[in-house]
Amino acid sequence: MIIDFHTHIFPDKLAAHAMQVLKKNASVHSDCDPTKEDLLRTMDECGIDKAVVLNIVTKESQHEDVLRFAKKTDSERLIAFGSVMPDSPHALEYIWKASDEGLKGLKFHPALQRVYPAEKKYFPLYDLARALNLIVTFHAGWDPSYPDEINATPQSMKVIAENFPGLRVIAAHMGGMKLTQEVFDDIAGKADIYMDTAYCAHSWIDKDILEKIINRHGAEKILFASDFPWDRPSKELDIIRSLSITDEQKQLILGGNAARLLGIQK
């Protein structure tokens, strides 16, 4: 079983506009259309069995719409995560709602949400997520929308994990986009977090340091992820399959770890 742990889609009527805004703000190219139909088609073409859809709330008024879309998207093949604005007075309420709707996790995007996730004022959110057994995924490291600042450092992911043992934390983009040396030096093998491979087929990360991080951190804490529609999953699949690690380690990364996290019977 192959599970892509990091994808994004939008409602059909909003997809084109959303991509136009994101491309303008971030100046990045997308390989696919951010729709459910194109995601499923791409999964079929790439041999992917299931995918986690990471929804992101970027303003208060989106809470209900994002929750409704996540619930509608959640299915046998697409596992939808909810999201909350960390600074919202209703953040805890919507964490409860995500759990009540049967969603398995939450996505935080500190850059787009304009927060620094290791600040103590956000600790009640992580405490509740842990109590509800929700997975929490963070965009970690550099982000093209705000290229001159880093909101979620590798060290901040370690702080959250250390303060909330048992909370299942995923630091996207191998622990921190464009911060691979910090990831290797400061958190690889030292923090109880998962890392995903989203967007790792691009030039910001060298294959040698990718292998070093995996070997130090342990393949059992790495999740295959593409960042669809910003990248085509086949590119990340090719990178993982080309690594100088064992077939057993590759199987863990490609789906075994994700199935365990999500409680999926293989």
Could you explain the architecture of this structure?
The protein is of the alpha/beta class. It has one domain (3-262): Metal-dependent hydrolases (TIM Barrel), CATH 3.20.20.140. 43% of the residues lie in helices and 11% in strands. The strands form 2 sheets. The protein has a 5-stranded parallel beta sheet. Strands 1-2-3 form a 3-stranded parallel beta sheet. α4 runs parallel beside α6 (123-131). The longest helix has 16 residues, at 247-262. The radius of gyration is 17 Å and the shape is globular. 46% of the residues are buried. The model has no long low-confidence stretch (mean pLDDT 95).
Structural class: alpha/beta
Topology as H/E string? EHHEHEHEHHEHEHEHEHH
Number of helices: 11
CATH topology: TIM Barrel
Query: Can you tell me the number of structural domains?
Result: 1
Classify the oligomer. single chain
What would you report as the Rg, rounded to the nearest angstrom? 17 Å
End-to-end Cα distance, whole Å, is 7 Å
Name the CATH superfamily assignment: Metal-dependent hydrolases
| Largest beta sheet: strand ordering | 4-5-6-7-8
- Helix percent reads 40-55%
CATH class: Alpha Beta
- Weakly predicted, low-confidence segments: none
Query: What number is the mean pLDDT?
Result: 95
Largest sheet: 5 strands, parallel
Please report the total strand number as a whole number. 8
Strand content: 5-15%
CATH-defined architecture = Alpha-Beta Barrel
* Coarse shape: globular
